[in-house]
Design brief:
Length: 280
C-alpha cells in the first residue's frame, strides 16, 4: 500500500537497537538520507567555510556515508549514481564535502501534510488534536530535550571516541547553548590536530571544558611535524625544547603542536636552538 503517510521523528536514529552496526540495504540508506536532510533552509559550517543548505539537502562526505552504511567506496558510488539516474537524489561533490539533494523532498515531507491531517481528523478526534496542539505550544522542555539530544548525537559522531556515552550526555546537558556552539566548532579543529588515541575521553573533554583550550599552530610550529620530535622511552610522549631557554621537557603530541613551553610560555622545538636561530 503506497498511499498515505506516517510521521517519523529523527530521534529514531538514536535508538541503540535500530542503529546497531550493520550493512544497510538500499531502502535503509535512502531513509537515512531522508531523515538527515534539512527540513528547512540553514547553514553548514566546515572550518572557516559556511555552506548554504536548502530544505531537502544534506552536507556530508562519502567517507562518513561508507562508515554509516558499512559499504565500500565502490558500492556507495554505484548507489549514488543509480539513485541519481532514478531522479531520487542530486549530488554535488567537492574535495571536502558531498551535498545531497533529495529530489521531490516535499512529496515525502510536505510541510502542509501535518496540518491537513489535523483538519481531516478534527471531527473524529477533537480531543487528540487539542492535546497535540498543546504539546507543540506549551511543552517547551520536551522540545528542548529533543534538540539537545540531536546536537549531542552530532557532536558524539564528530568526536568519534565511543566511550562513556551516558556520562558524556550528562555533561553535555549541563552546558548552555553558547557553550554547545563553542564545543561543535572547537571539536572540528581539535580532532584535526589530535590523533584518536590521544583525545581525552569525551565526558572529560566536556567536564573539564577542554573546548575552551586555545588551538594554535603558528608559523614556528608549522615548520615541524610530530615525526620531527623524538619519542620518550614509553613510546607516547615527545621530547621537546623551549625555543627561548632550550630547557627540555616531555610533552604530549597535542602539546607539541599546540601548547607553549612550561618554562617560558613560548613555542617548543625538536632540538636545541643555536645562536643563529636554527636547531642544533
Amino acid at each position: 500500500m503506497s498511499s498515505g503517510w506516517i510521521k517519523v521523528h529523527r530521534k529514531i536514529l538514536e535508538n541503540d537497537w535500530l542503529s546497531k552496526s550493520r550493512v544497510y540495504s538500499n531502502f535503509e540508506a535512502f531513509m537515512y538520507l531522508l531523515l538527515k536532510a534539512n527540513h528547512k533552509d540553514g547553514m553548514f559550517h566546515i572550518g572557516t567555510q559556511i555552506i548554504e543548505v536548502k530544505r531537502g539537502q544534506l552536507v556530508t562526505s562519502q567517507k562518513k556515508l561508507c562508515k554509516q552504511f558499512n559499504w565500500s567506496n565502490s558500492k556507495l558510488r554505484n548507489y549514488l549514481k543509480t539513485a541519481k539516474n532514478a531522479s531520487m537524489i542530486h549530488t554535488e561533490t567537492t574535495s571536502k564535502t558531498t551535498t545531497l539533494t533529495i529530489c521531490n523532498y516535499d512529496t515525502y515531507q510536505e510541510s502542509s501534510t501535518e496540518e491537513a491531517l489535523k483538519k481531516e481528523s478534527f471531527n473524529t478526534d477533537k480531543t487528540l488534536i487539542k492535546h497535540t496542539n498543546n504539546n507543540v505550544k506549551n511543552n517547551k522542555e520536551v522540545n528542548k530535550h529533543i534538540n539537545v539530544c540531536d546536537l549531542f548525537e552530532d557532536w558524539w559522531k564528530m568526536y568519534d571516541r565511543k566511550v562513556h556515552k551516558k556520562s558524556s550526555k550528562y555533561q553535555w546537558s549541563k552546558l548552555n547553548e553558547d557553550e554547545k556552539k563553542v564545543v561543535l566548532q572547537h571539536t572540528k579543529d581539535f580532532i584535526e590536530i589530535t590523533e584518536h588515541r590521544f583525545r581525552p575521553h569525551p565526558h572529560r573533554y566536556l567536564r573539564d571544558k577542554r573546548f575552551n583550550d586555545e588551538i594554535r599552530v603558528d608559523e614556528l610550529q608549522q615548520k615541524y611535524t610530530l615525526e620531527d620530535f623524538k619519542t620518550d622511552g614509553g613510546g607516547i610522549n615527545k621530547i621537546a625544547y623551549c625555543s627561548k631557554c632550550n630547557n627540555s621537557d616531555f610533552y604530549t603530541p597535542y602539546e607539541v603542536l599546540n601548547a607553549e613551553s612550561r618554562c617560558c610560555n613560548v613555542n617548543v622545538i625538536p632540538r636545541k636552538e643555536v645562536a643563529n636561530g636554527t636547531c642544533a
